[in-house]
Amino acid sequence: MKLFRLLILSSLALSIQLSLVLAEVHMANGIKIGEVDSDSAIIWTRLTQTPEGLRPGVSFIALKKLNVRKTAPGYDGMDQLPEGKTLAEMEGAVPGVAGEVRLTYWPENAEEQKIDTGWHPVDAHRDYTRQFQITQLQPGTRYHILIKGRPLSGDSAASVLEGSFMTAPLADEVIDICGVITTCGDYERMDDDLNGHTIYQTILDQIKPHFFVHAGDIEYYDKPNPWAPSRDLARFKMTRLYAMPFNRKLHRYTASYFMKDDHDITKNDAWPGQNFGALTWEIGLDVFAEQFPVGEQPYRTVRWGKDLQIWMLEGREYRSPNNLPDGPEKTILGQKQKQWLFDTVKESDATFKVLISSTPIVGPDRKNKKDNHANLVFQHEGDELRRFISKQKNLFVANGDRHWQYHAIDEETGVHEFSCGPHSDQHAGGFSADMKTAEHQFLRIKGGFLSVQVSRQSGQPQISFQHHDVQGKVVNEAVFFQETR
């Protein structure tokens, strides 16, 4: 009898192992093509148990607010699941699965130059993701990519995705370039329940940008359905969002840069060391690096040909606590990043320069806010930045974070700032038309995005900032010609 039981148990264990090996693999979260410059990129993917997010699924227990006890260290938010249910059964779930992936890439019209990475396992400890750093690319070139996935020990690909992107042109190449900047996503405030955020489809079909910048607040861990005060729930919210068809498809065909802000690290207005339940600051940073193709240094600059260079600032990792008294030592950027910004801007010979910040530098913001350079609590560094920007020719600011669109000119320094607005009209708010000031050249309390385009008209360089609504309609445009004196 004992031998019989051992045989049964051994057979059961073998069956479980075999089912894991032969499990279906899919890529419901698609591809993300990140950190693209003139000769390199990072290609991200994730293996999943299903080809789409679970729709319909079980609803989370509604908790409109979290009391102090539930935001204390150790609270993981799992009491939002109905009794007996797992995350894999919840609405939008995209559980990961073990397996292997391989990447093939080549320049357009040059398949003979194909490079194949071979099969590599996804990392179960990194939510079944894999990132490929590819180098020695040709500048100003469209690359095609093919990613295949298979189960562990599988013989052939079980899932295949294709995509493409363009590398940045060299600094001496004159070429028309278009980029798009967005902010403030969130699954609960999508405008298309079946497909995701409409702007992703709009951008891909109508704008066809060379690059896409998400300026932060990609997802909101500190908002309900579910609140995400733990690593597992943070992963759940990110993968659920990027399984939506519109969101997923854009990133298969566009070079993207992902910036983080408070809501996609821990919670609103957070600074280093502030946790959200069991979601520590360090875990929040780790999940972001796991879910997005980002480099080791969170602030970076990329040159897109002769006429455009962009800077993407890091506004969370190096900041002082918001509640410290303002003064020379209080900072959002940190001294190292700030010096890097000053040095690289001065060194640049790009015709136009765009500084992208996850929070406002000009504003104006509401008087009760205490989290950005447009607020009095960071006025010292804000003044320093605005003075510096005003002394540079052809340097503009674009920002995320605010849930409304605007073009403002700082009354003291003349710095121009363009706020891209949230992903959807449902997400707009927090400001109103009667709060418009003399600094506002344009103000709109709706969703959409910002496009930035450089071109030459009769040989004269120009840059255009266009605010779009969610359907792509241009609702505001500001055009600037190169200032040479």
Structure description:
The structure is a single chain. The chain is of the alpha/beta class and 485 residues long. The protein contains 7 helices and 21 strands. The strands form 3 sheets. The protein has a 9-stranded mixed beta sheet. Strands 12-13-14-15-17-16-18 form a 7-stranded mixed beta sheet, with helices on one face. Strands 3, 4, 5, 7 and 8 form a 5-stranded antiparallel beta sheet that branches. Helix 2 packs parallel to helix 4 (245-252) and helix 3 (231-241) packs parallel to helix 5 (281-291). It is globular and about 65 Å long. Mean pLDDT is 94; it is low at 1-22.
How many strands appear in the DSSP assignment? Answer: 21
Q: What ranges have pLDDT less than 50 throughout 5 or more consecutive residues?
A: 1-22
> Shape from CA axes?
globular
Helix content: 10-25%
Query: Strand percentage, roughly?
Result: 15-25%
Main sheet characteristics: 9 strands, mixed
Order of helices and strands: HEEEEEEEEEHEHHEHEEHEHEEEEEEE
Mean pLDDT: 94
Number of helices: 7
Structural class: alpha/beta
Outline:
The chain has 485 residues and is α/β, with parallel strands linked by helices. It contains seven helices and 21 strands. Helix 2 runs parallel beside helix 4 and helix 3 packs parallel to helix 5 (281-291).
